[in-house]
Structures are given as C-alpha cells and as structure tokens.
Actin-like protein ARP6 (Metarhizium acridum), 1033 residues
Amino acid sequence: MHIYTRLYVLLLSLAGPTSAALNCRPEGPVLPKPNLGGSPILKLAGQNLTQTLDDAVQGVIKAGWPVENVSFSLAVVSTYQKSAGVPIWEYHHRAEKNDRGVKNITRDSQYLIGSVSKVISDYILLKSGVDIDRPVTDFIPKLNSSRSKVQWKDITLRMLGSQLSGAPANNGFSEYYYLKEFFVQSGFPPIKDSDYPPCGAIGLNQGCSVDEILEGMISQYPVTAPMERPAYSNIAFVVFVLALQEATGKNYTELVADIVSKPLDLRNTLPSPGEDCKAMIPPGESSWGTDYGYNAPGGGLVSSVADLSKFAYALLTRSLDLTPTQIRKWLKPEDWTGADSAVGMPWEFSRPLTLTPSHPHPVTVAGKGGGPQLYSSQLNIVDEYGVGLIMLSAGNSGASTVLSDALLATFVPAADEASRDQAEKQYARTFKSERTSTQNKSVEASFKLDNDSLVISEIRHGGDDVFGGIKKIWGLTIGQYTATFGSAMRLFPTDLYQTTQMDGKNVAAEVWRLWPEFGEPIESDMPGSNSGFENCLQWTLGDWIHYGKEPLDRVIFYKDASQHVIGFEMPFLRSGILKPISDLVDSMAGGRKAKPAPPPRPTNTLIVDNGAYTLKAGIVANGHVGEPRIIPNCIVRDRSRKVFLGSDIAKCSDFGELQFRRPVERGFIVNWEAQKEIWDQELFDNAATKCDPTEARLILSEPPNGLPVLQTNCDQVVFEEYGFASYYRGIGSTFNAYHDIQNLFRTPKDAPTAANVPAEVMLVVDSGYSHTTITPLLRGQPLHSAVRRLDVGGNLLTNYLARLLSLRHFDMRNETYIVNEMKEAACYVTLDFKSDIEKTWKGTRGEKRPSHMSGDGIVRDYVLPDFHTHTKGSMREYDPTRHTKARKLAAAGQTDEDVLTLRNERFAVPELIFNPLDMGMQQPGLADLIQQSLQQLPVGLWPGLLANIVVVGGSTLFDGFIQRLQKEVVQRVPDDCVVRVARPADPITSTWFGAANLASHPNIEKLVVTKKEYEELGSALVARKFAAGLNLT
C-alpha cells in the first residue's frame, strides 16, 4: 500500500493516544539515533513514497495540487549519509508547463527559499563573534531615539533573532497599495498616497535605504512588549544584520559568503537574484530575479537541495563551526506559540504526538518554512532521529504542505522503526561479567525493548536481586517526596560520550540514565485531586542517590568502531564491564562462528485464498499449477452436537439447525484458534496440500484496507507458529491481474491475445460471502484512494432470504445452511425489478391477477430436504395442481414433503447488491460505488477501467449479474466510454489461479519476506514491504 500525501493527517486521526510512559521522558532521543544509511526499513519507505509521488505527478492518484504547474525537490538527510551534500533519499519533478530555467532538476538546482533564509541569518548571528545579548542600540545608536515607539534600548540581538523583540513585522511591505480601491469599497475612508510609507510599499514606491529603514523603525508601532510573547517579524532580521554590518564592517552578501557558503562549500546559496541557467523558475509572475536589497536576511536567499543538505548534515552531526553545546542550545525553543508549539532562533517547533503511530510519543520537529511569490520551502530537523527533511517547490503554494506532510509521515515513522530495530539487536540483550567480581560473584544485567523504550528486565549480583533493591532504595529515599513508583525502570541515552580503552582497543563509552516510572495516582475526592500528577517531575530525580560517589541511575554501554554494543557497566556495582552473553559464548568457543549459508529458495508454494465461506488452497510445485481444493472455512456442530471441521461437513447427514463457527468475519481473520484448527487438518494433514512449512513459501490473500493489528497477528502465526520459509500477504483482488484478462472479453471470432501479465489496467469487483469490494488496478497495483467496499455479501443475502421466508412460510432463521443452498439454486438478478415485481403481484383483494400464481414463469417450488430419503433440497417448476394434491395428501398424512413456493424472493434478495436501501442499509449500490471509485481517479484512466471490469466471487454467480451490472454502469458513465463486464469461468477460484501465476513469476522473491528477515527486522518490515503491493519491476 502506498503512503499518500494525506497520511500525516490520517496518522493524527487514527493513531492511539500517546504513551503515558514517554509523555514524561527526558528531552531527546528515546533510543540512540539510528544508522539510516543502509536501513532496509528506510529504503522501503523511500521506495513507497517515490512510487506514490510518481503516481501523483502522472495523475494516477489525486495529488492535491496542479502538477502541471508545480516543480519540486524533496530530500532526506541523515547523520549517516556518505556525503554531506548527497541525501540518502531525494525526489525531483519538473512541471510540464515550466518553460524557463533549468531543463533537468538536480540537487544543485536553485530555488528561492524565502524565510528559510532566517536560519542562515541566525547562524551568521551566532557565528559573528558579537555579543548577541547586547542591546541593538549599542550598534545602531540612531534607534535610541526619544521619538521611537519601540523601546529599542531594551531589545537585544538575540531577541531580534528569536522573534521576541516585539518589533514591527515589516517596513512598508505590509501595505497593500494595489488593494487601495478595495479597501475603500469595503468601507474604509479614502487616503492619499502621501499617507503611505515613503518606501517599501509595492506598487507605489521603491525599496528602502538604510536611513529610511531606521526611520521606519522609529515611527512604527511595536507589536508587543519585548519578551512578552513571540511576534513574527521580517524586519527584525534586517535590523540585527545592520547591527552586524556596523560591528564587522561586512554587508550581508559578504557575511553569507564568509561565514556560511565558503566554509560549508555551499555553491548555490547566495542573496537573490540567483542564476537563471541553474534555477527552477515557475510559470507566471514570481519572485525569481528580485533583488531583495536590505530585506534579504529575512527572506531573500537562493539555495539548493545539495546546499541545504550540507547545512542540515553539519547541524545534525554537530560539525557546524559551533560547539555541540551551542548547537544543542540553538535547537531549543525560546518561547511558546501554542499548546504544543514554540519558537526559537528562528526555528518553529512542533511536538506532534502521533508521528510514530506504532509507538506514539511526542516528537520534536524544529522547522522553518518560507514562501516568496510562487515559491515554497520547508526545512525540518528531527534531531531525535538524526534526520533532516527538505522541501523546495516552485509553483502553486498548495503543494508545499502536502509534500512536507508526506515527508514527515513517511520518514519519521520509518526512522523510529529503524531505531527500535537497531536497539533491539544491540541493547535489548543480556550482559554478564566475564570473571567474578571482588566478592566472587558474577553480575548479570538483562534489558528488553517494550512498546515505549529500553527497560531493565533484571539485574543480579550472584543470587541477589539488585534491580529489586534499587527500586526499594528509591522508595525509601526520594520516594517519600514523590508519587509512588511503578514497576518499570526505563533507560534513556544522554548524548554524553567519551573514548576509552577496552581489551586494548578504542571504544566509545555511551552514558545512559535510569528513569523511574510513577505508579497510580492517589485516590481522593478532594477538588483538583491529582492534577499535579500530570506534571512531569521525574526530571527532578536525576543524580539524587549515590553509592560511594557513584550515582545509582548512571550506566554505560560500550560500542566499537562499527557501532556494535560490546559491553555494559554499572559503576555503582563496581562490576567492571559486562559482555553480551553471545560474545562470551563465542569467545569460549574460540572465536565467532561463520555465518550460515542463506537457506535455499523454496520450490513449493502453498497458496491460500482465505475466504469467509470457503478457503481455496493448493500447491504450486516447481512451476506446476494444479487444481485448488475448495474447503468450507468453518467449524460446524449439528443437532446431535457432533462437530465437523472444514471439509468434514460433507459427512454430515442432518443439515437442519447447524451451528457455525467461522474464523473470518467481515473479511478478516479474527479467530486464529479456529483458523489454525482448519489449516492444520486441511492444509498440513491432507495429502493434496501437505507440505513442510519450513521449506515452503506461502501466498495468502487478504481484503483491502486491512487492519494493522490483525495483519501483525497473521504475520506472527505464519512465521512464529508455522515457520514458513517465506511469505507474501496480498490483496486478493490484485491477484486477478495475473490472468490474461483480454481472453475473458474476446468472442469466438476473435483471435486469442498474447498474455499481458500483470494486466495494464482493470477494475475488479469481488463479491464474496462477507462483502463486496471494488478495486481499480494499474499494472497489478491497487489504487487505494479509489477502493470501495459494500457490506453486502452472500452471508447477508442468505440471512435476508431466511427472514423473508420466515415471514411467509416456516421459521427458517436457524436453517442458514439450507437457505443458502436455496439461494444459490433459485435466486437471480433481475434486469427490470419493477416489471418482475408487477408479474409476481397478486393484485388487489377484489381483482386477482390471472397469472399471479405462476408470476409469468418466475415462481418456483423448492422442495426441502427431509434428511431421510434425500439430504439436499431441489427446485422444480411451479404447478398449482400439484399444490392442491399435496395439500390433500398432507391432510391425510400420506406425504412428508415440505415445499416452499418462491416468488419475488428470487430476485428481491440479490437486488440488495444493487440497492442496499431496500433493507435500510445506508450505502450506495454496486454501480454507484463503481461511479464513486472512478471519480477518485483521473478521467484518463476511466476508459481502460470501464473496458476491463472483471467480477469474481461466489455472489457474482447469480444469473443476470453481469448483464445488470453492465446496464447500470453504462447509465452512469460518459457515452463515449465502452463498458465491458466479464466473469471468469470459475469466479470462485479465479483469485487462487491468479496467485498461482504470480508464484511462478521470476521476480517473486522481490515480494516475499523470508523468515530470516522477519526474525531480524520484525513485523514493521513486513508491513512496509507488503504495503508496496505487487511491484515486480
């Protein structure tokens, strides 16, 4: 499944509440920053977003912006990338209507970056060597005027760079002279041109000189008092750069070159105007080529992806020409701007709680955006993961938010999963002393990774429970001043490192701190009770308990040059360095064992189309495709309480009042205990499908829009309980693309077509037992935004027929097996519902219609099974004379035959597929849902989809289904669209045979996840890899 540009909003709305454990964690990373350079998790996330962006700019999915007018460049920067100027992922798109500037966008293409310039200007301020806590009037005495409305003598350079000066937003630029007449028409009094500022008003006069800028700063009103609250200001950056100019003797162009561009090798970062031959220039009137003059510090720089990548890389790796402490300070907020947002120098901070939906916690994003005319830019720094995200666009500004959100929603969760994956392997281990301590006792410490962070599992010193002792000591000391402590003790890294020696080699000592978790709040009926419990007070407890000069909360992990954790130490235990148990075993064995050869690729593939009513299963062995078995997917109990599992139901002799237990509900496997019972008997104990899972590949179908928790459960069963060698879980509808679908539509006169697998474009209607889905496919990939679901399937139709019969005949509500057989034998889809209703209408009480009894041939008799002479029901022509005779025989007790006469039930039941409102369901019918699906897609795809509608599933077997669907779709689409609807020879096994063809594809190994990958990378990788869909290129 692709990750769409609206995913960020989706994450915010669907993810669960943030973790209470991480709400009050220490500021900074939860786990060490991941190495993303070679991370398969991040690589897969990048591939998914690349495909989504390709689909967006090609019109396959709705982009949300005019793709023909917007060019853009996106990039992801990591502390572990090989070159500072080469991001670990990037994407560039040049809009087709761009007719100026560079022809091929690269990471060196120039864009206007607007207010992202403020980041560069603040860096210059920090690097200038000037005391930035001095008042600006020390550098520009003219501002210390008695006429000034702004108290400049109280405003420092730091306040100006932090949006806390209260200075005006602009000088002249805030005047909209070109809207002068509109102001008057809106009720404002007319004013003269002389009432406007003498400079800087666009459309009226020129830009301002230094003297005019300073005079404007004296005459304008302050927005707020200094340091009272943040107030966004462009002119504040102009003012502090003028101060730097006075202090250094260099203008802004020189400061940019000397402090930023030359030291960091930023070849495309300079004050506007840039170079047209390198530029990305949008169509229309834009700010490209503007000379911003003295206003450049607030928003007038040009830059590129490569340059911003170098800058972000230096910032993240602490290699900027500032100390690490200065950089950490720079990445901290200065004041609040909202409940979860703040401002710094000049970073705009947000702390979304659900950027990492699998492990929700507040993630600090330090960002800065800019927006000159027809340009947008965004630089986001997520220091917790060592990640920088860059978005530069030229064109309609509506693209910027969508693209920035897509970057955040794609790569922050991926970085989080990568950090957890790497921490699981390196830190969540058991460490043990290699030799006994001074007290002749070994020390052992074990850690695990829970859903939030690294936690202590156990610390033992000989037979003593040190971990339990630590918690008791905390409770006896500082515990009397705090809330009660919980059971968990968490660990967090501190960003404190030092180089030391271990076994004669240089290693990095990485300091972590223990972090207690508070227990339950005090129960009280007093007002405001426990309101203080939500205050995060754990930060006050650090370094509070020592044992012989060693803090009880300070521990050290040791890492070698390859960043592998090779030791752990608890100085308060005087334990020395503990080694990972695996390393101790290897050293005792005389060295590390050679890595085993990778397992051979499976030659057998077990394919399971796991439907709610039946599962279709079979083996593809060495490319040979056999016939699948169709197995009832249920556990049944009859009236004698005898239980039948799966295909054993054929042994049942009495189908009356059967009780069913089904593992699948609404299309999803929700009862794995029942499903495993059926799988064990039908798949692994049956000769036709018997295979050794450890040597086989599994291909398993699932419905669209699967629930992540159910998918994770499925992955665990497949790998951890059955141990399959490899596995692919895919949307069942997509497997139908692996047929030669054009041969479904050819007439006998047409020559057979060459197989095109997967089909280029098709629309699959899958109507099964639980529901009906509409899935548009492009080259085998589902177009997720257009997938639609109708909660009408065979189960609902059977229950509806039982309800209708119970109102007019016998009570059939507990006879679902018999009613289902009756439905399959007798029901059909009418082409003219009104006409058939009239045919079966009896007429008024006084005027019976002559043909109402037979319904003009519609009425049929269904003979119910008696489970003695015949165990199955049968349908026959309606005969009124036979009914008269049967009534007489029944009255005389000479017949046991029970007959139901089926009238309008025959077509009223399947009608629910096309008109669910008939039974009060608030859903559109099938044809309307197809229309809704198409409306989510570009019109250019409609002809291909409409000409290739393939229906599969048991509920499409009703007579008249294809004709009715084609008729209704034709009525809803443009006249020039050809509508073709086809049904495979066996729509029940069509999905299975498509999956069988997929299993024989030479690139099938690109799709599957191996057991080894699962064991190393977990369910997160499975979810991300399967989200990519059937991408075999």
Q: What stands out?
A: Residues 1-17, 585-595 have pLDDT under 50 and may be disordered.
